[in-house]
Design brief:
heterodimer, A: 113 residues, mainly alpha, 7 helices, 0% strand, globular, B: 614 residues, alpha/beta, 7-stranded mixed β-sheet, 13 strands, 46% helix
């Protein structure tokens, strides 16, 4: 499957192209999958952007892990942005935030809940 | 306790002998093996000139071998001799790879027909780990061929099985293949096919397809051996534990799996603090404990500890010379027992730590509610919470699939919600994972509200409310209340109870031969996927099914779990044998031993981390 191959490519641009290709293969029956592929592409783009900004690796992470990592490097505003970009449910976001804050021992942040 | 363990009247030794003899034949050409290496990528450091490879016919192994040969050719050409033996059979693909690599001509090739490996006296396994995925996802039926070959060999040793019953499409395929092989044999080799008698001991073969019962492996196993497998993963009857658990003396176990089978073998210490310990019936204490519900293991260990202590104390009573001598002769055995006690106590402690955790109990509770069909809204909520906590994906999927299977799929909205959650939390590569699970029907959208699981559960009384873990009276003890469907089916066919409830209490008499087979269960079986069949095999001289056995031993049913089985199912089957005062023995065959995690794991899409491959 093209999709799986695409995940193995290192180069971001190539990956996106490949995924677009893969996305087209899903017909009307698979609107969910097609949508997921779109999201995946969007995520890679966002991650590429983040990598440029912070000089840290983001590709390969899931949305949750991306948000988690952003909080641990003290970029909560960016984290919030990613969260709203992908319409992450509140419940999950708070879980991530809590765990991330504990990880960096930001007890003030935890107390501020 | 323990009287029912292991000792089936089927003489597995003849199978062991055959395997051993063949290994000798294979190795014979080389007069003694000096070193055994594990096949792995990278250069092979050895000064030996004669290399024998024994491995599974897998493409990556071929690559390793070719790689080694290439390296050698560069160094000092032509001084090496290579032999390669495929377990259990060579395949065209592997030969092709070797050809492409240009080393085909350098290797002497052969086959080592080690197919069914006796893990125990009553448990044979092909140890073909990927069967489940190959068979049900890739629809690759190679393993059916291996299984059929292996069963034909068994028939060659023990005689034709008079009756073959089964459930599931692949089971049917296996049965058909065996019957066809027999016909082919009659054409090719008339002598053999005619001299092979009907089997004296084995009166039936029951094939259960894994796809018939996917619920069982997804439940957490609650027997001692099952829990060890869940937590530490038993592989080829070895388990890796922390070295501190075992003292330096080697474990006093000698019997067990046929060793020396190349990629399968090797029990040496592993680098680091891990140590491999073999777990099998040779360890007396373990064979007592393995099939018990974990709830009673602690008490029993305590009792054994006291007894051993008392035995040690006996030395004070030894006054006279003969008494002392008697005690000394007992010492060896005592020390061995002590050793195994120490191992199992520490294992049990670790399991205890694990089973005491909130997560474990919460998961278990959800599981029990799900299989019991007690519908609440809490279960999906809990699964959502697990995802939010980012617990390992395999655990999440295990529970989610169980929920989906039992409820005949999720409501469309729920289905999309969980799919989305999983993709966003665990990564988009799992589009494929979800697709895999959907194709297997393990994680699906609900199409009808008709729930076949509930009907099956009721008619086969899979849920037993009152479970006595200390003195079990039904196979449901293994999951503390849930009777594994697969084994319940075996019970149905062997003891012809009129309905599920009576099957639970065990029928009268040894059942089978002319028996009803599936009769009385047609309705239940219709609700389960796959075909049902019941074939009789005859010998040409008109001799029909034996009703009396010449040697007075109980008849044996061979139970073949196609696509793998769990330790718990093994335990449950042993329990069946222990009932009815040993009127029937069971020998279990399977393609591999699995548990929910290994099953799901084989379906999870793996993506090489771009950072490590970079």
């Amino acid at each position: 499957l093209t999709l799986i191959e695409s995940f193995q490519l290192k180069d971001t641009a190539q990956r996106i192209d490949m995924m677009k290709e893969a996305g087209k293969l899903y017909d009307k029956e698979h609107t969910f999958e097609a949508k997921a592929v779109e999201d995946a592409i969007r995520l890679i783009q966002v991650q590429a952007q983040l990598e440029k900004e912070y000089g840290e690796l983001f590709t390969g992470l899931s949305i949750s892990s991306t948000v988690y990592k952003l909080i641990t490097i003290n970029q909560s505003t960016r984290a919030n942005k990613v969260r709203s970009d992908f319409k992450m449910p509140d419940k999950r976001f708070w879980w991530i935030k809590l765990r991330a804050l504990v990880e960096i021992r930001d007890w003030e942040g935890v107390a501020a809940f | 306790t323990g009287a029912h363990l292991g000792h089936t009247s089927l003489n597995i030794d003849s199978l062991r002998d055959l395997a051993r003899k063949e290994l000798v034949n294979v190795l014979d050409s080389d007069h003694g093996v000096e070193n055994i290496y594990h096949l792995q990528p990278g250069p092979l450091e050895t000064e030996h000139r004669n290399l024998i490879y024994i491995c599974r016919p897998q493409v990556n192994y071929m690559k390793y071998i070719a790689d080694t040969i290439h390296r050698h050719v560069n160094d000092h050409a032509g001084t090496y001799r290579y032999s390669l033996f495929f377990v259990p059979r060579r395949t065209a693909v592997c030969e092709k790879v070797l050809e492409d690599e240009g080393v085909f001509g350098d290797i002497t090739m052969g086959e080592y027909h080690l197919d069914l490996i006796p893990l125990e006296d009553d448990l044979l396994s092909l140890e073909w780990d990927s069967t489940f995925k190959e068979l049900y996802l890739d629809r690759d039926t190679t393993s059916i061929y291996y299984a059929a070959k292996a069963l034909m060999r068994l028939q060659g040793i023990y005689g034709w099985f008079p009756r073959i019953l089964g459930k599931g499409d692949y089971s049917k395929a296996l049965c058909d293949m065996m019957l066809r092989m027999r016909r082919e044999m009659a054409v090719d080799d008339l002598d053999v096919s005619q001299t092979t008698q009907m089997s004296q001991n084995i009166d039936s073969l029951i094939i259960i397809d894994r796809s018939v019962d996917l619920v069982t492996p997804l439940c957490t196993q609650l027997t001692y051996e099952g829990l060890i497998d869940e937590i530490f993963h038993i592989k080829n009857s070895f388990v890796e534990v922390d070295a501190s658990l075992v003292s330096t003396a080697p474990a006093p176990t000698t019997s067990g799996s046929v060793s020396g089978s190349g990629s399968v073998s090797g029990s040496g210490t592993v680098p680091g603090k891990k140590k491999k310990v073999s777990l099998n019936g040779g360890d007396k204490l373990f064979s007592e404990l393995r099939d018990l519900n974990f709830a009673v293991v602690g008490g029993l260990l305590n009792k054994v500890a006291k007894r051993i202590n008392a035995d040690y104390e006996e030395r004070h009573n030894a006054k006279t010379m003969p008494q002392i001598r008697q005690f000394i002769s007992k010492m060896g055995g005592l020390a061995a027992e002590h050793q195994s006690l120490r191992l199992h106590t520490s294992l049990a402690e670790q399991i205890m730590d694990y089973t005491m955790t909130d997560d474990f109990n919460k998961i278990l509770e959800v599981q029990q509610n799900v299989v019991a069909g007690i519908a609440t809204n809490k279960e999906p909520d809990y699964i959502e919470e697990m995802i939010n906590k980012q617990v390992p994906l395999v655990q999440v999927l295990r529970l989610l699939c169980l929920y989906s299977l039992v409820n005949n799929g999720l409501k469309p909205k729920q289905y999309e919600f969980f799919s989305r959650e999983i993709l966003e939390v665990y990564g988009y590569e799992h589009i494929q994972t979800l697709e895999n699970l959907r194709r297997l029907g393990m994680f699906t959208k609900q199409v009808t509200t008709k729930n076949s699981y509930n009907l099956v559960r009721r008619s086969l009384s899979l849920i037993v409310d009152e479970v006595n873990e200390h003195a079990p009276n039904d196979i449901s003890y293994v999951y503390s209340g849930y009777a594994p469907l697969s084994v319940r089916l075996v019970q149905c066919v062997v003891y012809r109870g009129k309905d599920g409830k009576q099957a639970g209490s065990g029928g009268k008499g040894p059942g089978l031969p002319g028996g009803n087979g599936w009769k009385g269960f047609e309705e239940v079986l219709r609700m389960l996927p796959g075909r049902t069949f019941d074939e009789k095999q005859r010998v040409d001289d008109g001799q029909t099914i034996h009703s009396k056995r010449s040697n007075g031993q109980p008849p044996i049913s061979l139970v073949f779990f196609l696509g793998g089985c769990t330790f718990t199912e093994v335990s449950a089957t042993r329990f069946l044998a222990s009932q009815d005062r040993g009127q029937r023995d069971f020998v279990i065959c399977t393609t591999q031993i699995l548990n929910g995690s290994t099953l799901i794991d084989s379906l999870v899409q793996k993506v090489p981390d771009p950072r490590t491959t970079a």
